[in-house]
Amino acid sequence: MKTNVLPRLVTHLLSMTLTGLFLLPLWWMFSASLRTPGLPLPRELEWLPAAPTFVNYLRIFEILPFGKYLLNSFVVAFSGVFLTLLTASWAGFGMSLLEKRARLRLLILSAILQMIPVTAFWLTRFLLFAKLGITNSHFALIAPAWMGTSPLFILLFYWTFRRTDRAVFESAELDGASLLQTWWQIAMPLARPALMAVGMLAFLFYWNDFINPLLYLRSQTLYTLPVGLLQLQEMDKTNWSLLMAASVVVTIPALIVFSVLQRSLLSWDSE
């Protein structure tokens, strides 16, 4: 019994240390956002400023339409997540039903696509979207979601469905279920861990996306939070407390989504 105490203690201490290293920069960012506007950043670690104030959080919404940017980011992120989960899971489910040779070809193709830099698609994608007339719209930002956003997301669903006993799908087919019904009513509930993992990764992808809004959007009313941060920096590059307040606003939703999905996944595993 005593021999198991030390490894568990070391594990807990290591977990607490890693958690602290993760949270320390976030706390420093929050603490810096509470400093008086215009003051430089502290040279040493400061847990809280001498005179904390939340005026910077009010200022970012006065200087720029940050509320509109926040809403745009939510619209783009949740739309992208919804479409990604549908298309990536459907593609992964279809791959899992193919014959071995066809699956191997698609796996090799997915690996090749993963190795191609994203920058290689910028010009051709911009020209295509310009021809389609969807530049300067949120449709251009969520267009990758119609193709699963990333080959990695499709492969995550593929590996999940491949681990499922084929007899489950075959019995549904014998009971008269269509392929669409088998995917939605049987395969999707069994892929809950993959749904949460892909949903979290897709949310972070669209929430933090900076290049695509910068390339495609021209109207300020369509801007998302990453572009709003750039605007704020260009307006006042030395007002660090203001920039830190805006960074906190951008970071909090991502932390909330990560925490909720992680807790849901852990509670599902414990069932």
Question: Which helices and strands occur, and which strands form pairs?
Answer:
Blueprint: H1 5-33, H2 55-63, H3 66-96, H4 100-115, H5 122-132, H6 138-142, H7 151-163, H8 166-174, H9 179-190, H10 192-207, H11 211-216, H12 225-235, H13 240-270
Helix pairs in contact: 1-13, 2-13, 3-7, 3-10, 7-10, 8-9, 10-13, 12-13
Largest sheet: none
**Series of secondary-structure elements, N-terminal to C-terminal:** HHHHHHHHHHHHH
- Tell me the structural class: mainly alpha
- How far from one another are the termini? 27 Å
What helical percentage do the residues reach? over 70%
By DSSP, the count of extended strands is 0
Sum up the overall morphology in one term: globular
Under the CATH scheme, the architecture of the largest domain is: Orthogonal Bundle
> How would you state the average pLDDT, rounded?
86
Number of domains: 2
From the 3D structure, determine the CATH topology of the largest domain.
MetI-like fold
Task: Give the low-confidence spans.
Answer: none
**How many alpha or pi helices?**
13
Oligomer state of the chains in this structure = single chain
What's the level 1 CATH class of the largest domain? Mainly Alpha
